[in-house]
Design a protein that fits this description.
about 375 residues; alpha/beta; Gyrase A, domain 2; Four Helix Bundle (Hemerythrin (Met), subunit A); Rossmann fold; 3 domains; 7-stranded mixed sheet; 14 helices; 13 strands; binds guanosine-5'-diphosphate
C-alpha cells in the first residue's frame, strides 16, 4: 500500500483492560478494502457494497489461520471502518496483526487523536481526559475538548487585531490565574500533614480517607517515611502525605524521615500543621513549620481537652481524629484554600504546561505591544 500518499491506519480505541468489547478503528483510502479482505458478512452485503452507516455482523478470519471470530463491523464513512470484537487485549491485537500484515499502519490511540484534530488544544484535552480521576475534573476538561479555551484564544487574537490591547490583557490575566487549577485537573493537589510526633497525623489521614492507610501507634516517631493516600475532596483530586513527626532526634532513621518530611513540605500545595490539644505549645513548634506559606493549623484531640484555649493568633481549626469532630469543617477549609474560586461550567481553562508557557509568553508580548509576535504565538498555541 506504499503507493498511497495518505496511509491507512488502525488504532485500538478502547482501553487495554478487561471489557466486553474492544473497538479497532481503521481509517484511510484502504480501510474498506482491508476490512473486506478479512471479514465475511452474515448477510448478502459486504463492507465494500454497504452504505455508510451500515452495521454488519459476520466472521473475521485471516487466510492462514484455522479459526476466526464473530464480530461486528460498522462502516462509518467511505474511508472509516470500526471493528467491534471481543474485549480484552488478545482479540484486538490479532486484528491489528492481520491489518498490519496487509500493509496497514498501526497507531496508538494518542497518535490517532492528535492526527484527527488540527486544533492542538482540543487534541490535548482529549489526550488528558482519561487522566482525570474525578468527574468534576473531567467535566472541565470536556469543556476544553469542546473548544472553550480555543475560542477564548481566538477571541484574544481578534482583540489584538482590533488594537484592543487592554481587554486582551485582562483576558490573559484571568486565564493565567486559572493555570494552577487547570494543572490539577489531571494531577492531584498535594497536601502534607505535618507536626510534632504523636499529635494524630496518621489518625487524621485515616479519618479523612476513610480507611487505615497509616499505622496509628501511641509511640512517638512511628512514621518514618512519607506515606501517600489519594482521595477526592468535594470532587477534587487530592493526595495526602503523612510525614514523620518533626522534632529533634538522635535516631538516624527518624532523622532521615524528618528530612523527607521537610522536602515534602516544600513541594506541597498546602500543609496541615497539627498541634495537640492536650499539650498545646505552638511557640515550641519547629521553625520549619512556623512560617510555611500555605498552611492550615489544626488543634487535634479536642475530645480530650475540656477547656481548650485556642491561641488567638492566626487561623486554627479544632478536630478529633477519633470522634471525627471538626473533620468536615477541616475538609471545607482545605478545599477553599486550594480552590478559592471554582471556575464556572464551560469556562476556558489552560491545563498543560505547553499552553501555560505559551500564554505567559503571549501575555508578555501583549504587554510589550509586540503584536506580530503575539499573533504568531497564538498560531503556535492553536496548531499541533
Ligand atoms: P502521629 O504520630 O502524629 O501520626 O499520631 P498518631 O495518629 O499515630 O496518634 C498517636 C496517638 O494519639 C494514638 O494513640 C492515637 O490513637 C491517638 N490520637 C490521635 N488523634 C486523636 C484524637 O483526636 N483523640 C484522641 N483521643 N486520641 C487521638
Amino acid at each position: 500500500m506504499s503507493e498511497f500518499t495518505t496511509p491507512t491506519t488502525a488504532a485500538v480505541l478502547t482501553p487495554p483492560a478487561r471489557g466486553a468489547i474492544a473497538t479497532v478503528s481503521v481509517q484511510g483510502p484502504e480501510a474498506v478494502a482491508l476490512a473486506d479482505r478479512f471479514f465475511t458478512s452474515l448477510g448478502k452485503i459486504g463492507v465494500c457494497d454497504a452504505n455508510v452507516g451500515r452495521i454488519l455482523v459476520g466472521h473475521w478470519q485471516a487466510e492462514d489461520e484455522p479459526i476466526g471470530e464473530e464480530l461486528v463491523v460498522a462502516k462509518l464513512a467511505p474511508e472509516l471502518v470500526e471493528i467491534h470484537c471481543h474485549g480484552g487485549v488478545q482479540a484486538s491485537q490479532r486484528i491489528l496483526k492481520h491489518l498490519a500484515s496487509a500493509g496497514c499502519q498501526v497507531q496508538s490511540w494518542q497518535s490517532r487523536t492528535t492526527s484527527e484534530h488540527a486544533d492542538a488544544i482540543i487534541a490535548e484535552a482529549k489526550l488528558e481526559l482519561p487522566q482525570a480521576v474525578t468527574s468534576q475534573a473531567a467535566l472541565h476538561l470536556l469543556d476544553q475538548a469542546n473548544g472553550a479555551l480555543t475560542r477564548e484564544i481566538v477571541t484574544i487574537g481578534n482583540l489584538l487585531d482590533n488594537a484592543n490591547f487592554e481587554v486582551a490583557q485582562e483576558k490573559l490575566d484571568h486565564l493565567l490565574s486559572l493555570a494552577p487549577f487547570g494543572r490539577h485537573l489531571t494531577q492531584p493537589w498535594l497536601i502534607v500533614i505535618a507536626g510534632p510526633p504523636n499529635v494524630g497525623k496518621s489518625s487524621l489521614l485515616n479519618k479523612i480517607v476513610g480507611y487505615d492507610r497509616a499505622i496509628v501507634l501511641d509511640m512517638p516517631g512511628t512514621t518514618r517515611d512519607v506515606l501517600h493516600a489519594t482521595t477526592a475532596l468535594d470532587g477534587w483530586p487530592v493526595q495526602f502525605s503523612d510525614t514523620a513527626g518533626i522534632r529533634v532526634s538522635d535516631d538516624e532513621i527518624e532523622q532521615a524521615g524528618i528530612a523527607k518530611a521537610k522536602v515534602a513540605l516544600k513541594t506541597a500545595d498546602l500543609a496541615i500543621v497539627m498541634h495537640d490539644a492536650t499539650d498545646l505549645k505552638p511557640d515550641e513548634l519547629d521553625q520549619s513549620l512556623k512560617e510555611l506559606p500555605a498552611a492550615l493549623h489544626v488543634v487535634n484531640k479536642i475530645d480530650l481537652a475540656d477547656d481548650l484555649q485556642v491561641p488567638e493568633s492566626g487561623e486554627m481549626l479544632a478536630t478529633s481524629a477519633v470522634t471525627g469532630q471538626g473533620v468536615p469543617e477541616l475538609i471545607s477549609s482545605i478545599v477553599s484554600h486550594l480552590i478559592p474560586n471554582v471556575p464556572q461550567a464551560h469556562e476556558p481553562i489552560p491545563f498543560t504546561s505547553r499552553q501555560i508557557d505559551g500564554l505567559r509568553q503571549l501575555h508578555q508580548q501583549v504587554q510589550q505591544r509586540q503584536i506580530d509576535d503575539a499573533l504568531q504565538t497564538i498560531q503556535t498555541l492553536l496548531k499541533a
